[in-house]
Write a structure and sequence with these properties.
Pfam families: DUF3458 (PF11940), DUF3458_C (PF17432), Peptidase_M1 (PF01433), Peptidase_M1_N (PF17900). By secondary structure, this protein is an alpha+beta fold. The chain binds (3S)-3-amino-4-(1H-indol-3-yl)butanoic acid (HT7) and zinc ion.
């Protein structure tokens, strides 16, 4: 397969102004008639020449140009294109194609889910529906007519507004027509048809327009739409308030489908969602699910402006819409809940997934330079690091400057397909700040490292901070230029109070927290009027996606844990200390030294647990030890077993010492108040279940009784799942009965069954691999359903390091077999699974060779998709 390069971008030779589509949906064959108004692009680099339309996996029935049916000799059809040599300057083209959506297991293009029809066109699915210039810089106005059996497909939806519908014809079929007044790229096209029911509400915009809001679901699920609808209304209000952005059509629709490769899709006026991000009620959804629904509903809604009204010129610019929209949804969730708690969760996610990507074989810039398969670039780098890059602009410009930049961006580019550079230019121009060097965040891959040291001069009352930056090589980028890094910081005096900050040469007065512009490889910042030796609080709020190295003592970290005015850094200090102690224990274990957890650390935990003023959600995060994955990242060679054993040991040691406090916390956070999904209630449940988790590390009779009791009696799925997850790790007799009971209760709720699969897949018991392999044959498992694959196969390979990396290699063989099975059915899902091998070089030689052998087996398999080939072959490079 050939790579596509950003440097080869050229404007499209032709433009398409209008698209008139007619779908005739059938059980065996679906016929699509497309009428396009095409003209040569006046801005094209060279004369228009042949028209080459993208298209694949369809049967071409006919082609007509300006009303005249073409003879097959007048065009040529390839496996991925339709070429018309030398068409006129402007013309109409009518193309008829036939598809078999029921055979489409890739879930891209037009496919069937639960008997309904559904489309997914991002990134390049539209070309599986009809021949088209399937690229985001071709924006057209769409009119879509759908005809189908009225009983089987009573609901037929597409983008925009419903402009016509005709009742049953003699043959029992009916027809609807939708018109979208906004020009859009083909990836935002959507069609849904089938038996669906809807929940309806409305929203009055700031300017007084009433918008109809509908959520379509399969019958029986109406009672699980309330949270998604409330989230949508909150998102609409937030975007008006924070960015002055109003919704622009008369109707906004969400459709929830069970078979979907990703979370959701922002098609204009007709968002299509994975059921996982719509359906939620306390009995079936955990707090994490509720938060996920709120965030994804918001994210897709926010795309209406950042993505749809202003879209990407080409797919290299994907972060233009995704990074910006993730930043917007993160800000929304922060405003709805606790800002520090949200920031901690986002940084944990970045470190767990993006940092490893950025230091592995798939490392790529936020704006990639090349790809083989664009679907492989919907990555955590493009999304989450992209959001960090936007956040840094927000930090550098301030909230007002950023808002001015957004206003200018829309003023300049509404209705256009643009680049990341256009976005930065709008920010720069609006705020009058030079972001020239800052642009390197878009072009250079890798996680920069920031080494900071401080020197206090008591006589001169100065504090000199020396900041050095570096960035490791990444594929294709052996050396890097310095980044422009916003370094937010404060200096704490011995009482824990922030010291006013003034740099040498600056006039007063001074604030107590500020952002330094780090631009050189090494820079010195000298603070004056510093009365005492301070403890620096660095990178407050995680002001840049970097790895910070600072020579803190354990006492410094304990001090920051207790006193830092920045809540994120209070958490961070605890994590840094815990990481240090746990890695020391891993070394002790490797050297056969006895394990002992520092009493001072347990005391610090105890203070957090007993602090009545602490937000329980924050306390739960502060009391969570760094994950096995994160600890592994800090080691040159990941000691899978050592990390697992030491972390388990530390949890037991903490639980043993703090048992009474943990029990008291469990009881205090329990309560019998009615279920609520507000931030406070979520926080109490998080802390309660954290306490239960520690207590279960002891597995004594009282803990087991609490856990089993919670499993049986809890009303909220959060609590049921917390208890079941803990039981699943044990050898208790109650384990099997709980798993059986859970399945019997919930076997008709696919999203709950997914939880049942993933809990078993993530069990630390040695027999887990055999159990997971057996579950592939369970009647509820369906390899064609991405949610089931992510729950069982993804849960095992991505969420169970100690079992997946079992030194025998069985986990690796299992994953490779599943990748090959999926490759034939759904390459996008297969490629997400094969990514779990990407970090093979971080392990010991034995595991390395086992993983490499599986990657080689995959690459050598005939018929490999572009998706899997790209990841597997780059992993081996
Ligand atoms: N913009 C959407 C991306 C997406 C997608 C991409 C490739 C294949 C399937 C897909 N489904 C959705 C989702 C988003 O980021 O909002
Ligand atoms: Zn998105």
């Amino acid at each position: 397969p050939q790579a596509i390069h950003l440097k080869d971008y050229a404007p499209p030779p032709y433009l398409i102004d209008t698209v008139d589509l007619a779908f005739d949906l059938g059980e065996d064959v679906t016929r699509v008639r497309s009428r396009l108004a095409i003209r040569a692009n006046p801005d094209a680099a060279s004369p228009a020449g042949a028209l080459v339309l993208d298209g694949q996996d369809m049967r071409l029935v006919s082609v007509a140009l300006d009303g005249r049916t073409l003879d097959p000799s007048e065009y040529s059809v390839g496996p991925e294109s339709l070429t018309i040599p030398g068409p006129p300057e402007a013309f109409s083209l009518e193309v008829v194609t036939e598809l078999k959506p029921q055979e489409n297991t890739s879930l891209s293009g037009l496919y069937r889910t639960s008997g309904n029809f559904c489309t997914q066109c991002e990134a390049e699915g539209f070309r599986k529906i009809t021949y088209f210039l399937d690229r985001p810089d071709v924006m057209a106005r769409y009119r879509t007519t759908i005809t189908a059996d009225a009983l089987k497909y009573p609901v037929m939806l597409s983008n925009g507004n419903l402009v016509a519908s005709s009742k049953m014809e003699g043959d029992g079929r009916h027809t609807v027509t939708w018109e979208d007044p906004f020009a859009k790229p083909s990836y935002l096209f959507a069609l849904v048809a089938g038996v669906l029911v809807h929940v309806e509400d409305s929203y009055v915009t700031r300017s007084g327009r009433t918008v109809t809001l509908r959520i379509y679901v399969e019958p029986g699920n109406q009672d699980k739409c309330g949270h998604a609808m409330a989230s949508l209304k909150k998102s609409m209000a937030w975007d008006e308030e924070v960015f002055g952005l109003e919704y622009d059509l008369d109707i906004f629709m969400i459709v929830a489908v069970g078979d979907f490769n990703m979370g959701a899709m922002e098609n204009k006026g007709l968002n299509v969602f994975n059921t996982k991000y719509v359906l939620a009620k306390p009995e079936t959804a955990t707090d994490t699910d509720f938060l996920g629904v709120e965030a994804v509903v918001a994210h897709e809604y926010f795309h209406n402006w950042t993505g749809n009204r202003v879209t990407c010129r080409d797919w290299f610019q994907l972060s233009l819409k995704e990074g910006l929209t993730v930043f917007r949804d993160q800000e929304f969730s922060s405003d709805m809940h606790s800002r520090p708690v949200k920031r901690i969760a986002d940084v944990q996610r970045l470190r767990a997934a993006q940092f490893p990507e950025d230091s592995g074989p798939m490392a790529h810039p936020v704006r990639p330079d090349s790809y083989i398969e664009i679907n492989n670039f919907y990555t955590t780098t493009v999304y989450e690091k992209g959001a960090e890059v936007v956040r840094m602009i927000h930090t550098l410009l301030g909230a007002d400057g950023f808002r001015k930049g957004m206003d200018l961006y829309f003023e300049r580019h509404d209705g256009q397909a643009v680049t990341c550079d256009d976005f930065v230019a709008a920010m720069e121009d609006a705020a009058g700040k030079d972001l020239g060097q800052f642009r390197r965040w878009y072009s250079q891959a890798g996680t920069p490292e920031l080494a900071v040291t401080g020197e206090y001069d008591a006589a001169a009352r100065t504090y000199r901070l020396t900041v050095r930056q570096s960035c490791p090589p990444t594929p294709g980028q052996p050396t890097k230029l310095p980044f422009h890094i916003p370094l937010a910081l404060g200096l704490l005096d011995p009482s824990g109070a922030d010291i006013p900050l003034r740099l040498a040469g600056e006039p007063g007065p001074a604030g107590t927290s500020r952002v330094l512009d780090v631009t050189g490889p090494e820079q010195v910042f000298e603070f004056v009027d510093v009365p005492r030796q301070p403890v620096p609080s660095l990178l407050r709020g995680f002001s840049a996606p970097v790895k910070l190295r600072a020579p803190y003592t354990d006492d410094d970290l304990t001090f920051l844990m207790a006193h830092d005015g920045d809540a994120f850094n209070r958490w961070e200090a605890g994590q840094t200390l815990a990481t240090r102690l746990l890695l020391d224990l891993v070394a002790d274990r490797a050297e056969n030294r006895p394990l002992e957890l520092s009493p001072g650390f347990i005391d610090a935990f105890s203070r957090i647990l007993k602090d009545p003023d602490l937000d329980p959600a924050f306390a739960a995060q502060a009391l969570t030890l760094p994950s096995e994955g994160y600890l592994g990242q800090q080691m040159p060679v990941i000691d899978v077993d050592g990390i697992h054993e030491v972390r388990t040991f530390a949890r037991r040691a903490i639980a043993g010492r703090l048992r009474d406090d943990l029990l008291a916390t469990y009881r205090a956070m329990g309560g019998n108040e009615p279920f609520s999904i507000d931030a406070a209630a979520i926080g109490r449940r998080a802390l309660k279940n954290l306490a239960l988790g520690y207590l279960m590390a002891l597995e004594d009779a009282e803990a087991v009784e609490l856990c089993v009791g919670q499993f049986h009696n809890a009303q909220a799925m959060t609590d049921v799942i917390a208890a079941l997850g803990l039981l699943a790790d044990t050898r208790l007799p109650q384990r099997e009965s709980a798993l059986r009971r859970f399945y019997d209760l919930w076997k008709d709720e696919p999203l709950v069954v997914d939880k049942w699969f993933s809990i078993q897949a993530m069990s630390e018991r040695p027999e887990t691999l055999d159990e997971v392999a057996a579950l592939l044959a369970h009647p509820a498992f369906e390899i064609r359903n991405p949610n089931k694959v992510y729950a069982l196969i993804g849960g095992f390979a991505g969420g169970n390091p100690v079992r997946f990396h079992d030194a025998g290699g069985g986990g690796y063989r299992f994953l490779a077999d599943q990748v090959l099975a999926l490759n034939r059915l759904n390459p996008q899902v297969a490629s997400r699974m094969v990514k779990m091998f990407a970090r093979w070089r971080k392990y010991d030689p034995r595991r390395q060779s086992l993983m490499r052998a599986e990657l080689e087996r995959i690459v050598a398999t005939p018929g490999l998709s572009r998706d899997v080939f790209e990841i597997a072959s780059k992993s081996l490079e």
